Amino acid sequence: MGHANNNHLLHLSPAGRRALRLREGLGDDIDTSFNESVRVAERAVQRQVSHQSLTQDQFDALVSFTFNLGASGAMLVLRRVDAGDLAGAADVMLRISGPAQRRREESAPLRA
Description:
Radius of gyration: 13 Å
Number of helices: 5
Number of strands: 0
Distance between the termini: 19 Å
Strand content: under 5%
């Protein structure tokens, strides 16, 4: 732990953005409010996960999760990820109420 990571350089990938828009029922058209909400979720993940390097898939999943729960709702998961407890974070994600399929999709990259 304690090593530098490049999470601050990550942004929601185009595939992650499409998947999030579809899960939210927004389609592919541009929506300023959606884009700002994504930026807020990205910044929360970047800020809270500073000791654990993430893959793009992990970052996308955490942004989706944070987008849906808000930064404070995602805090326990983000702290576990930052501590390197990816499996524990995935377990917490599955226990949080919400659509079961969405939680499975969001937690899967943390188990890989």
